[in-house]
Amino acid sequence: MGKIIAVTNQKGGVGKTTTSVNLTASLAAAKRRVLLIDLDPQGNAAMGCGIDKQKVSHSSYDLLLETVPASETIINVPELGFAVVAGNSDLTAAEVHLMQADRRERRLADVLLPIKSQFDYILIDCPPSLNMLTLNAMVAANSVLIPMQCEYYALEGLSALMSTLKSIQNSVNPELYLEGILRTMYDDRSRLTKDVSEQLVEYFGNKVFRTCIPRNIRLAEAPSHGLPVLNYDKTSRGAVAYIALAGELIRKEKN
Ligand code: ATP
Ligand code: MG
């Protein structure tokens, strides 16, 4: 199938990486073949999978700039059951190189074309900005998954993101669609969270995932052990929520 999902939101710290890593792990636990591409120079997704981002021989820089065949950039992590292309600070240079390249916004789409059939899902963890890397992810992707925190300014940021989505649909990737908006770090005791959440559902309807990811300390601890939460504490509320999200995504494919 090879469905490519860009996990994106230009706002920082909303749970993009946590979602990329843990949704990947949960889809893998459901026996799907999954590739996680870390497209953020911070390299947090790679680290969250126990990969030393400075020691990898090839990264998503090499994938984008085709310094080696795409297959050589893929790191299989058998103990986690999925594969990763690591990201690191080299990606900052990739952005500069891409600026001068032909088909610069289509590079990732072009390099993924021959390998995407090896996977059921390819998730791309995007950086917190709308730069050339994010644009490449959104051009390569079939859909975008937007994690957001239910807080006061979130809706405003979301409308900016929706207009970006529209302009990409109207130009470089007409097929791109919104997979869904994911409520992260959800605190059901907070009045504000509930209000923002209600507004979100009112506006975006069934484009809001039914699964909410609760604020859960295990989710924050797991990356320091280089593990998805499923491998760190599979009974935690965070792990259960990401399993539910994977189920929701898989069920959607069947409809
Ligand atoms: P950036 O924009 O910098 O890439 P991000 O959107 O990828 O950030 P994360 O790195 O996933 O966001 O999350 C930001 C911080 O919040 C991290 O320290 C993470 O461990 C923590 N965090 C994310 N989701 C949760 C959650 N549901 N419960 C508790 N902590 C969380
Ligand atoms: Mg991140």
Describe what you observe in this structure:
The protein is an alpha/beta fold and 255 residues long. The chain has a single domain (3-254), classed as P-loop containing nucleotide triphosphate hydrolases (Rossmann fold, 3-Layer(aba) Sandwich), CATH 3.40.50. Helices cover 42% and strands 18% of the residues. The protein has helices at residues 16-29, 44-48, 60-65, 90-99, 107-112, 132-140, 154-169, 191-204, 217-221, 229-232, 237-254, and strands at 3-7, 34-38, 75-77, 82-85, 121-125, 143-149, 177-186, 208-214. The protein has an 8-stranded mixed β-sheet, with helices on both faces. Helix 1 (16-29) packs across helix 11. The longest helix has 18 residues, at 237-254. It is globular and about 50 Å long. The protein starts with a strand and ends with a helix. The model has no long low-confidence stretch (mean pLDDT 95).
Summarize this structure as a short list of keywords or feature phrases.
255 residues; binds adenosine-5'-triphosphate; alpha/beta; single chain; Rossmann fold; eight-stranded mixed β-sheet; 11 helices; binds magnesium ion; 8 strands
**Bound small-molecule species:** adenosine-5'-triphosphate, magnesium ion
Overall helicity: 40-55%
H/E element string? Answer: EHEHHEEHHEHEHEHEHHH
- Low-pLDDT windows of residues: none
Number of DSSP E strands: 8
Helical stretch tally: 11
Q: Tell me the name of the CATH homologous superfamily.
A: P-loop containing nucleotide triphosphate hydrolases
Termini separation (Å)?
15 Å
Q: Could you say what the CATH topology is called? A: Rossmann fold
- Provide the number of structural domains: 1
Please tell me what the overall shape is: globular
CATH class: Alpha Beta
Proportion in β-strands: 15-25%
Mean pLDDT: 95
* Structural Rg: 17 Å
SS-based class: alpha/beta
The main sheet comes to: 8 strands, mixed
